[in-house]
Amino acid sequence: MNAEIIAVGSELLTPYRIDTNSLYLTEQLNQLGAEVIFKSVVGDNQRRLVAAAQHALHRSDIVIFSGGLGPTEDDLTREAVAEALGLGLKRDPDILKRLEERFAARGWKMASNNAKQADVLEGATVLPNANGTAPGQWLSGKFDGRERIVVLLPGPPHELKALFEAEVRQQLQAKVPPAFLATRVLKVAMLGESQVDARVAPIYKRYTDVDTTILAGAGEIQLHFKTCAPTQEAAQQRVDEVAGAVEDELDDAVFSGAGESLEQIVGYWLQMRNATLAVAESCTGGLLSERITSVSGSSRYFLGGAVVYSNELKTELAGVPAEMIERHGAVSREVAAALAEGIRYRCESTLGAGITGVAGPNGGTAEKPVGLVFHAVASDSGTEVIQRNFPGDRKRIRQLATTMALDMVRRKLM
User: Fold this and answer.
1) Alpha-carbon gap, residue 295 to 374, rounded angstroms
2) What are phi and psi of 165, to 5 degrees?
3) Which domains does the chain have, with CATH numbers?
4) pLDDT tens by residue, 212-244
5) Distance of CA 42 to CAs 28, 67, 375, Å?
6) What is the Cα gyration radius of the chain?
7) b or e along 331-359 (b: 16 or more beta carbons within 10 Å of the residue's beta carbon)?
8) What residues contact 174, with CB distance under 8 A and at least 6 apart?
9) pLDDT of residue 178
10) CA distance 43 to 82
11) Which residues of the chain have pLDDT under 50?
12) pTM for the whole thing?
């Protein structure tokens, strides 16, 4: 069976609120074996809500609405769904009584507009809401000659989640045919999206029963594989098969096959090698250290480092010779190597990492433009330096620079 989620509320169409309910509902539906094929956010407008409901009911087996069940004039989900289904609304005296008792228990007089929360779709089952005043509703039946399930849930996440767990999950489980969904995610560092797809598309296209999605971020490509099968074992085996073939093609560019972040993987490798790391960073301003220490337990392998923005601190804290900076400039291959070697020596670490560059938006020149970054990793076996010219704004350049440095450390340890 397929499903659709409609998040209701004009606030979700502003930059200030995020629809987190649909993420939770998608996870729950997938676990039950239902595939979410559409999601939408609709403002508090009855005409648009009716249209969205009609489209959803025409194409999806399960339609779940979140939000719009409050007491105010702009809470229109009940009315819109009733119109879309051609059903009436009936005020339930038991719900009304419970609402009045809830307010009385707090010493308040219930406002008259709260009474609309007792309006129930004809034929719907009321879903009690232990955490709020708006009960949910469950309706199943034929629409356009096909069986449909319609669920109305309150918008506040703590109410929606508790109500789904208590009232909806079991009913859906009884309705959704047994099916098992399996997913797998591969993460790739420092390759372009088109470059990755050109290499792996001939592989994943052979698996027509597996959905493949490629997501691009700052220095990271994610390949998501998803399939459905009669058993969990069969589904997992299928996604593992395609993921394994893709991983063989991309080789060591794949840093994670189980969802781990790059900083987690670097931590794993450092611990496996019984190695330690120290860093000296200029243009990234501590972001590399922040990413490393975002992993719990990083004190076992990360000794620390220095943010050496000024030339004086490059010399004082990382031991970069002043004459080297004068000769080559702070943004140079030589200074990056000296940062890595100097911080490794000062901290007595197995590896040292150094970053220097021009993050922008100012400070670039024709010879050293914005986005130019030098990365270095030093060890007993020598020092490797990689130069990159990253596109984007300051935030993106800094993110890409730290990803490059982390991937260099990973590859060094491999």
Assistant:
1) 25
2) -65, -45
3) 2-175 (3.40.980.10), 180-256 (3.30.70.2860), 270-413 (3.90.950.20)
4) 999 998 899 999 999 988 899 999 999 999 999
5) 22, 10, 46
6) 28
7) bbebbbbbbbbbbbebbebbbbbbbbbbb
8) none
9) 81
10) 17
11) none
12) 0.77
